Predict the structure.
Amino acid sequence: MKIVSVIIGILIPASVAAAGAVLLNLWLRGGPGMDVDPRLPVVEQSALIEHVPVFPPVFVAGAGKAANLPGAWPRFRGSNFDTISTETVPLAKTWDKTGPPALWSVEMGEGYAGAAILGGKVYVLDYDEDEQADTLRCLSLADGKEIWRLGYKVPLSSQHGISRTVPAVTEKFVVTIGPACHVMCADAQSGKFLWGIDLVHEYGTKVPLWYTSQCPMIDDGKAIIAPAGSSMMIAVDCATGKVLWKAPNPHSWKMTHSSITPMMWGGKRMYVYCASGGVVGVSAADGKILWEYPGWRVPTSNAPSPVIVPDGRIFLTGGYRAGSMMIRLTERDGKIVPKKLFELKQKVFGSEMQTPIFHRDHIFGVTSKDAGELKEQMVCLNLQGRQVWTSGAANRFGPFGGPYIIADGKIFVTDDHGVLTLLEATPKGYRQLARAKVLSGKDSWAPMAIAGGRLIVRDSKTMICLDVRKK
Amino acid sequence: MSEKEKESGLTRRDFIRGGVRGALLAGVGAAAGGLLARSRAGDTVWQIDPEKCIACGNCATYCVLKPSAVKCVHAFDICEYCEKCFGYFDLDAPDVETGAENQLCPTGAIRRRVVHGPQYEYKIDEQLCIGCGKCVAGCGQFGMGALFLQVRHDLCINCNECAIAAACPSDAFRRVPADQPYLLKTKQ
């Protein structure tokens, strides 16, 4: 009896434990049961573009002449940074199936660079694929003929196109930012090169995925640029190229595709910029950081710019499931403190590339293609973030979402395939006036420009000027 | 022989014999028809319409083969060779590099290599691909839709009733002629 209890109580458990230990040892020694290819970060060829001095650029005179035509669209989003024309030129309320007449057409390097218009001239930072050069082209608004061009060599390959910014132009100066973050300033009339900055080399800027889309601004003779590298923002005297102030970048936020938007609040003029880690407000006077808001960041790519709404509000939107957000600036203890008012999911409103328009106390924009049932539709929101109307399943403006602009109380909007639609710019409903295919190429994503009833649109390879005036 | 049989001239034995003969003929006919139908079905194969596919993931789990005969394929002429490929990287990936935490594919079946500058080529390792469609969903939602699923006919056993087709929520499975077995995406 005692032997049996010893066998049951000690020998069997001990044998099982010993066998288990042997098996565990064998299992651990045996390694994985199949070949495992560990997925570890590997050193890939750097995507950064090697630094090569590009300035001074090469100037080439053309046969074109500045048109004696009125009207201006001097930068990205127009005179007031709101994508609304300030002109009162009456525009046609409808067109036939062929659309508004095309006045001229110009071949471009692959990309989405948009036009700025001033003094009968059209400025566009094209990419000359033959010369492998960022090329500032000055064209006649009348016939598209080239007046001059100014180009610097920078070999780039297509990443969803190459060019993608709009110049800023005044009577004296024209400022550009190239796809690989080269800033250039030239005399707006003669095309004479004045100065240039390589943001990657001088400020440690990381070129955003698919190249930069940041459009420069000129404010009171100063070029305002966001390198988002060693400095968040800089002001450069257009006449001399001297850097007047540098705003710090304490969190090492990076450059996005968004552009700087000016804003007045509490008697202070400031520049609002969506960097990779949040939104920042920089004093226009001296470059001091007035406020930061890390609560808004878009994964992958923040392309739309801030939309300034009255009463210190800023509407922010993005694609890649970011949705939208309205924040408001408030003051506490003498400091500016931004606060979130509301947030919208992507399926309510989120714009991947284009900046919405604030008009008649509403926000108009096209949703991104990941917005579910509402994808690629034009949406009108009230300032509480509620949908007032949507364009419906039959009226989509995608897949990625073409640009839109307001002039003479009408919205011009394209889809990716060059179909131009005209509708009333009203919160009362989606009221379509006309539609026509005006471009035959792909990716008509470039911001539009309008001056004197001439609307400039483009696809990836062709820029055209449409006469949209009332006959 | 009954009076009725005498009147009709047909005996019960004749009736049974005729019935059996008829049943045999019908059976042979049915078998021949079945064989014919089977032979016609052999002229078609299952395929996924990429325009209808919603990359739900059913292809990975419903196929009778393990791993599935459905694989991701890549239309190079549609691809933009992005540095941040939405078929390769998780949308919220902390970094744009090859660490497993950044990759969308659960089996690491997509390989990438630098082509030129910031351009990358992405290739599918079909030995590893399980047809889950995660990359297809990512590329379709945020990219150009260059990645899509296809039934690979060197693997598919062409079941009469395809289990994936029965489970497909978007009716993307259909039979296509065997001599044109793939529904490929092309640049529009």
User: Anything to note?
Assistant: The helical segments of chain A are 2-30, 199-203. Chain A touches chain B at residues 37-42, 44-45, 47, 49, 156-160, 207, 209-210, 299-300, 319-321, 369-370 (CB under 8 Å). Chain A has two helices and 33 strands. The mean pLDDT of chain A is 94.
